[in-house]
Amino acid sequence: MNPPFGTRKKGADMEFLSGYEALRDFNAKSAEVICELRYDLPKLYKFHKRKEVDIAVDLWRFEPRQNN
């Protein structure tokens, strides 16, 4: 599955996006977003119709928990 370029099966990207939201919420409890960036993701497969897709990227900082 490659949601930035769409999927071969209509609506399949919604499953990916709902999983992304849950993962982001979980990570937010133990990490911080350092910055939010934009990235031009190039096409990887012949069936991709666009040359590249502009996507949002978050840079996260994770630190080990302190056991006290």
Provide the descriptors you would attach to this structure in a database record.
elongated; alpha+beta; 68 residues; SAM-dependent_MTases_sf; rRNA_MeTrfase/Polyamine_Synth; rRNA (adenine-N6-)-methyltransferase activity
What can you see in these coordinates?
A two-stranded antiparallel sheet has the order 1-2. It is elongated, with a radius of gyration of 16 Å. The mean pLDDT is 81. It has one helix at 12-28; strands spanning 31-42, 52-62. With 68 residues, the protein is an alpha+beta fold. The chain has one domain. It is built from one helix and two strands.
Domain module tally: 1
Count of helix runs = 1
- Stretches where pLDDT is under 50 for at least 5 consecutive residues are none
In N-to-C order, the SSE pattern is: HEE
Shape: elongated
Helix content: 25-40%
Give the termini separation: 42 Å
Number of DSSP strand runs: 2
Proportion of residues in β-strands: 25-35%
The major sheet is characterized as: 2 strands, antiparallel
